[in-house]
Structure formats: C-alpha cells, structure tokens
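Open question from group meeting: does this chain pack into something compact, or does most of it stay loose? Before anyone orders reagents, we agreed to write out a predicted structure and look at it together. Recording both the input and the output here so the notebook holds the full record.
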Amino acid sequence: MSRARNRHQDDLEYILKDGRRLGTRRVASIDTAFADDLFEKLLYKDVDGEKVERRTTVNHAMKTARGAWNTISRAHPHLFPARNPFEKMGLQSTSRETPHANFEELAAFREKAIELGYPSLATGVLIGWEWLQRKTHIFIRFMAEHYRPEGRPNHVYVINYKTSTGSWEPLFDKKGKPLYPLLMAELDAMKALRPTGGLMLRRDGSSLPWSGKGEMLTQVERISKKIILAAGLRPELTFTSFGRHGGTTEASTSGLTETQPMKGPMVVNQGDGALPSSRR
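Structure tokens returned:
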C-alpha cells in the first residue's frame, strides 16, 4: 500500500510546463485535451535511460481520477465543469489484465469441458457469460434455493457484480417463453440433484465444493486452463475471461449496456441444444 501511495504522490508532484505542480491546477481548467495529454506524459517512465511503459498503473490513475471527479463534483457542482474529462478515454488493457473471451471461444470451451467430464464448468462459464457473475458468485454464493425456488418458480437470484447486491431476475418473457433455454435446462437438471439445497455447482464426480481453504477457487482455474489448452484456445484465457469480462464485452459490441445481458439471453437454444453462432 505504501508503494502504491508513493506512486500516486509522484504523479501528483508531476511538474507542468509552466513550473507548477499538477496538484495545484484549478479543476475548472482541466479539460479532455489536458487529461489525454496527462495520460501520454505519465505512460512512460525513464528507468536507467530507457523508457518503460506502465500502462496498468496509469490506467488505474485515470480511473481513480474519474471516480474522484464524479464523487467530489456531486458535492461541489459549482466548482467543476459539467463534463468529467477523465471519462471515455478509451483506456486499453495490457497483457497482464484479464483478457476477454469471445462467443466462439465460449462455445469451444463448453464443448471441450463436457467432453473432458467437467459439465459443471461448462455450466459455470455460461452463468458467468449470461448473468455477468464473478467466480465467487458462481461457485460459492449460488445456492439451489436461488434458482426457481418454490416461492419464485420463474426467477433466479442474481448478484450485480458492480454493487454486490442481489435481485430476483425473470427467467421467462411475458409470453412464458424461457429467456435462457439452454442454461435453464442445465440448471433444472442440476437442481434435481440437490433435493436438500446447498451449493448449486459442485465438483463433477465427487460433488464436493469447488472452493478450497479460505474459499480459494484454485481448482476452477487450474482445470479451466487444462480445458482451454485442450480446446486449442488462446493460452492467456482464464475462467474469468468467459464470465463478466467476456459477457460484458460481447454485450457492448452488440450495442447493449453492461447490465442489459441480465435482462435477456446472450445465448439461446436453437432446438438441438447447441450454442448458436451469434446473438439473435
């Protein structure tokens, strides 16, 4: 934490061309052009005479500035310009950040997972993709009682990954048609094996929890990597790539907001139980 604070302090001590420190500049004078220029200036750091890119650190700095601007400007709107200059900067990830899987990779992963005897992981990635869920929500928090309970037979309890709050989401449209037919078929079969409730997704074969000591999900990532390599997918992919990362990215490229996939399926059943090639 101290190293992180020192890095941010160094950035605040950045000297502008007029000799002033960045932290002394009036917020009213900060616009999008200034934010873009600041990003470019901070992106590279001189290390022993060589320019070293530090994109992840600067991305986090810009995101922190964006959040701070939104929070403080709300309390003092008369001091801030109406537009946040740190929004929509088009920040790009580095290879160290979680890569996003695409739809075809999702289908390939599911097919190979089932072939290798890990249908629970095939269902898990589909839950993450459809409902933008984190690993902990899928393998540790998702209980049989959260899916079509007696009091809510047409709903599923979904955690919002941004707020960590849950809500009951519909599984059928107004005409009674399943919104997630393929995923629902898998979860219906899975719930039939959980007459006393408890964890919905468990290890294939043993029915033990996927989580280990300290709620670690090491086995999920280890076996997912095995499946990814066996399917011939990009080796940098992880289980997380198929969850909220992949689903959110596919949604945004389809013109949807990040929360809209929970309102309708990204994946539908075309009658033969297989994944289609694209969203309807």
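Observations to bring back to the group:
Residues 147 and 156 are 5 Å apart (CA to CA).
Residues 55-75 form the longest helix (21 residues).
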